[in-house]
């Protein structure tokens, strides 16, 4: 059994804090006489965790990229690793920070300066998924068969993921966080997020910047925020003015609710009794944590570092080992995925499949940039495939891809089943001028992006499928 350890990092730049972890992932190429070869990550270990830093800002809307870069360089030195040793992981900008005006440029800049293969991503849904992985909620749902909700509460947002049978089944995000209201040590309000205005008004609570807040008023606000969050998670409310983006709440009721994030970490502390105790960090985080604790939700096993652990340890997977790689371009980052069903009918119909491929490629050509490869074609609803059908698939895909993306020299195809090597060989014969990368055992969703790493065990490569979403 071929095994290899690779180095992965996770860097989380949040509303309040920035932290980094380094982990080792053990990848094994497992095969025997009864099964197809397959690669999987069989062990994950955190080898270094940085201090938790206050996110450096130039002003209220700009992240200080220079200070972030210096911080990252110093932490790499502290961890005893160099850029060329990093093979996987994620740089994520989360919460309110993802709305800062230079977030998109920074996340790509950091990705380029973090190592050969590091995911650059931001987005509330992905943050919720990563936090659920890092907090232990996904694993607990797999072990108990129960629906587990993880609420990751940071400085600006509460990212929620509902987990069942080891998978995330629903995500949503609320404007609930410790730094949405900021105070000085005397209790004067220095900042109130505009996202709270309507919510406070609807609950007959008025708080203004510059006024001295009473403990009673702050406690009422934090209690309402905690209750609003938990009631929406329990599906007791079907709507909320605090939703970050429109969401239709399903009727799924979680059996267990756990809280991670910076606010989750403070749940074990004693209730603050004065405004000065509330404002110890310059915000209402300690009081918000108390009110989550008082409505009997549990503290997650991992709290403050849940998201960064999810990013660094759990975001990377490996492809199948029966792959076809006819290109020297790896690693490749941020390739948009276009999903195309192979067979929606009872039997294989080449003409209808060709119409679907043409429509999908034409739409992709209007949505995405002209980078090469312009998009990854992901084949779903893939039935048993005969040799004749395989050749027809290859001909349709290569023909429509070239017709739509005339300047492209590289074609990436993703499959759910173990057919990538055969399909890749068929595609290569169809278009010898095209570089072909064909991967199998990939779990994808239309509209996601994929990063392809270097080979890590035999022919298998490291893969990260993620969402790139920058809020305006």
Automatic annotation (TrEMBL):
InterPro entries: ATPase_NBD (IPR043129), EutA (IPR009377), FtsA/MreB (IPR050696). SUPFAM superfamilies: Actin-like ATPase domain. Coiled coil: none annotated. Pfam families: EutA (PF06277). PANTHER family: CELL DIVISION PROTEIN FTSA-RELATED, ETHANOLAMINE AMMONIA-LYASE REACTIVASE EUTA. This is Ethanolamine utilization protein. The lineage of its organism: Bacteria, Bacillati, Bacillota, Bacilli, Bacillales.
């Amino acid at each position: 059994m071929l095994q290899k350890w690779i180095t992965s990092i996770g860097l989380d730049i949040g509303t309040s804090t920035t932290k980094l972890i380094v982990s080792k992932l053990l990848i094994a190429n497992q095969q025997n006489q009864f099964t197809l070869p397959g690669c999987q990550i069989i062990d994950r270990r955190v080898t270094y965790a940085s201090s938790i830093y206050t996110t450096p800002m130039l002003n209220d809307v700009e992240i200080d990229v220079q200070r972030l870069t210096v911080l990252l360089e110093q932490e790499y030195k502290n961890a005893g690793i160099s850029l060329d040793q990093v093979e996987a992981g994620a740089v994520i900008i989360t919460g309110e920070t993802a709305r800062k005006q230079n977030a998109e440029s920074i996340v790509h800049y950091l990705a380029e300066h973090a190592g050969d293969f590091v995911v650059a991503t931001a987005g509330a849904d992905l943050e919720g998924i990563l936090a659920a992985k890092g907090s232990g909620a996904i694993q607990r749902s797999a072990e108990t068969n129960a629906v587990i909700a993880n609420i990751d509460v940071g400085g600006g947002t509460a990212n929620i993921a509902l987990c069942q049978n080891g998978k995330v089944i629903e995500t949503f995000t609320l404007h609930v966080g410790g730094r949405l209201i900021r105070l000085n040590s005397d209790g004067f309000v220095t900042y109130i997020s505009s996202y709270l205005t309507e919510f406070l008004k609807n609950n007959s609570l008025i708080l203004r910047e510059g006024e001295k807040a009473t403990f009673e008023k702050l406690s009422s606000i934090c209690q309402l925020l905690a209750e609003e969050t938990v009631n929406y998670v329990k599906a007791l409310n079907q709507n909320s003015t605090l939703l970050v983006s429109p969401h239709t709440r399903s009727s799924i009721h979680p059996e267990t609710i756990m809280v991670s994030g910076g606010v989750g970490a403070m749940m074990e502390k004693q209730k603050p009794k004065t405004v000065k105790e509330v404002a110890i960090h310059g915000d209402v985080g300690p009081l918000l944590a108390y009110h989550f604790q008082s409505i009997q939700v549990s503290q997650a096993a991992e709290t403050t570092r849940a998201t960064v652990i999810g990013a660094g340890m759990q975001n990377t997977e490996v492809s199948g080992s029966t792959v076809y790689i006819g290109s020297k371009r790896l690693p490749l980052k941020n390739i948009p995925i276009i999903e195309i069903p192979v067979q929606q009918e009872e039997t294989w119909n080449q003409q209808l499949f060709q119409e679907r491929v043409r429509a999908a490629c034409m739409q992709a050509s209007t949505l995405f940039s002209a980078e090469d490869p312009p998009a990854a074609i992901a084949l779903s609803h893939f039935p048993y495939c005969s040799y004749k059908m395989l050749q027809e698939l290859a001909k349709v895909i290569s023909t429509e891809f070239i017709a739509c993306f005339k300047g492209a020299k590289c074609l990436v195809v993703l499959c759910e089943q173990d057919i990538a090597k055969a399909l890749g060989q068929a595609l290569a014969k169809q278009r010898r001028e095209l570089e072909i990368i064909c991967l199998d055992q990939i779990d994808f969703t239309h509209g996601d992006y994929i990063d392809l790493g270097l080979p890590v065990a035999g022919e298998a490569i490291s893969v990260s499928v993620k969402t790139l979403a920058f809020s305006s």
